[in-house]
């Protein structure tokens, strides 16, 4: 089987409160999306790469990646899952059912090459696939309804934070996303769609510094992490 890369980059970055979507903010004088894509493409061998963009995106054509012949684009959707599904559909006539697809957030530029390599190496023989994830570090509290009263402390020993890339078979992922979207099931990552379909994704432990740039403070943090990778 071959490996395909999908990078959802069709979000608007509301929580970042910047004047452009966060994937087009600068990190070390490069667009975040360029940093993310080059780290992936330089450290793994993909048959192709599909980036999902907003329909009205005036920034993409300014990126270095837009000149990279390995990279194709499609129009994303209203939610992240719709963007990933659109990218799968754009690859439909090139990919085989059992090919692997790696999905990685445009807003995660700090992926370490060793994590990418271990994800692929650990899952290539797995029937379903899985995701990078990292153990929860903080003590977790459950609140009682809308009040601020602590109901209980949640046992965090079995709790992991889901990261990307997430790696699944092409048609299993496509069917799972289609079904989950159609049923209105809340899917915030690929693994949850597979879980909804009754599959059991596998966790591969990844570094906690594979952060998703979400709020303004994350930008400086990402710069610091990248300087030390
Ligand atoms: N994404 C996408 N299509 C959407 C929504 C999100 O391709 N309709 C992408 C984003 O561009 C990002 C990734 O999914 O790379 C993770 O989503 P998130 O961090 O939530 O990004 P945004 O939705 O852009 O940010 P916010 O939720 O703060 O608006
Ligand atoms: Mg979002």
End-to-end Cα distance, whole Å, is 30 Å
Helix fraction, binned, reads 25-40%
- Largest sheet composition: 7 strands, mixed
Oligomer: single chain
Could you name the CATH homologous superfamily? Answer: Spore Coat Polysaccharide Biosynthesis Protein SpsA, Chain A
Number of DSSP strand runs: 11
What is the number of helices?
A: 6
Structural class: alpha/beta
**CATH topology heading:** Spore Coat Polysaccharide Biosynthesis Protein SpsA, Chain A
Residue share in β-strands: 15-25%
How many domains is the backbone divided into?
A: 1
CATH architecture: Alpha-Beta Complex
What would CATH call the class? Alpha Beta
**Which outline best applies?**
globular
Structural description of this entry:
α2 (80-90) packs across α4 (170-183) and α4 packs across α5. The radius of gyration is 18 Å and the shape is globular. With 229 residues, it is an alpha/beta fold. Helices cover 28% and strands 24% of the residues. It starts with a strand and ends with a helix. The protein binds cytidine-5'-triphosphate and magnesium ion (MG). Cytidine-5'-triphosphate (CTP) is lined by residues 8-15, 21, 23, 52, 76-80, 83, 105-107, 212, 214. GO terms for molecular function: 2-C-methyl-D-erythritol 4-phosphate cytidylyltransferase activity. The record marks 156, 212 as: Positions MEP for the nucleophilic attack. Its EC number is 2.7.7.60.
């Amino acid at each position: 089987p071959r490996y395909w890369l999908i990078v959802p980059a069709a979000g608007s970055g509301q929580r970042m409160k910047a004047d452009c979507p966060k994937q087009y903010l600068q990190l070390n004088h490069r667009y975040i999306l360029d940093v993310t894509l080059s780290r992936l493409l330089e450290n793994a061998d993909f048959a192709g790469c599909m980036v999902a963009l907003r329909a009205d995106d005036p920034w993409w054509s300014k990126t270095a990646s837009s000149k990279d012949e390995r990279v194709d684009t499609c129009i994303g959707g209203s939610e992240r899952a719709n963007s990933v599904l659109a990218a799968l559909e754009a690859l439909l006539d090139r990919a085989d059912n059992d090919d692997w697809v790696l999905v990685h957030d445009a807003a995660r530029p700090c992926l370490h090459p060793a994590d990418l390599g271990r994800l692929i190496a650990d899952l290539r023989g797995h029937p379903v696939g899985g995701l990078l994830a990292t153990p929860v570090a903080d003590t977790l509290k459950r609140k009682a309804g809308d009040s601020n009263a602590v109901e209980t402390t949640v046992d965090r020993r079995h709790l992991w934070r889901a990261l990307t890339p997430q790696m699944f078979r092409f048609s299993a992922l496509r069917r799972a996303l289609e079904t989950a979207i159609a049923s209105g099931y809340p899917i915030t990552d690929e693994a949850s769609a597979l879980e909804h379909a009754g599959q059991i994704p596998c966790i591969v432990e990844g570094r906690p510094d594979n952060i998703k740039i979400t709020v303004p403070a994350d930008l400086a943090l990402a710069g610091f992490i990248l300087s030390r990778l």
